[in-house]
Amino acid sequence: MLVELVEVFARTSYTNAPKRDFNLRKVYVNPKSISLIREETMMRTYLQEGVLPEGLNEATSFTRLNLHDSGSVSSIVVVGTPQSINEKLTAQRGLLKG
Q1: HEC string for 52-79
Q2: What is the Cα–Cα distance from 16 to 26, expressed in whole angstroms?
Q3: Alpha-carbon gap, residue 76 to 79, rounded angstroms
Q4: pLDDT at 61
Q5: Which long-range contacts (CB under 8 A, 24 or more apart) does 91-94 make?
Q6: Whole-model pTM above 0.85?
Q7: Integer distance in angstroms from the first to the last C-alpha of the chain?
Q8: What is the mean pLDDT of the chain?
Q9: What is the pLDDT of residues 6-48, one digit of tens each?
Q10: Cα 86 to Cα 94: distance, rounded to the nearest angstrom
């Protein structure tokens, strides 16, 4: 079973000078593919600087997930504390077993 999360991703624009542009999108993650869950503090800095999309509360936390798939590793940043993300992932796992 996949778990729905909200990813923060960067789009790069090169119109006069390089500029990072962040956006949000829904992603569906397989909890079994996650090998690391940790707080992503750099996104908090971007939030305070006003670089992230409007509408995010200043108290918002971010979490980095490392995902393993067929021998490759990818990393995404999602909205939420590591604890809340872990709870969401383990609650989903509990439903699978029960």
Answers
A1: CCCCCCCCCCEEEEEEEECCEEEEEEEE
A2: 30
A3: 10
A4: 96
A5: 92/1, 92/3, 92/31, 93/31
A6: no
A7: 13
A8: 87
A9: 999 987 666 665 567 899 999 999 999 999 999 999 999 999 9
A10: 12
Position 98 pLDDT exceeds 60: no
CA distance 30 to 64: 15
HEC profile of the chain: CCEEEEEEEEEEECCCCCEEEEEEEEEEECHHHEEEEEECHHHHHHHHHCCCCCCCCCCCCEEEEEEEECCEEEEEEEECCHHHHHHHHHHHHHHHHC
Residue 98 and residue 86: Cα distance in Å, rounded? Answer: 18
Report d(CA 27, CA 8) in Å as an integer: 10
- Tokens 């990813």 belong to 7
Length in residues, the chain: 98
User: Going by C-beta distance under 8 Å and a sequence separation of 6 or more, which residues neighbour residue 79?
Assistant: 5, 6, 7, 8, 24, 56, 60, 61, 62, 63
Q: Which of 17-31, 44-58, 76-90 has the lowest mean pLDDT?
A: 17-31
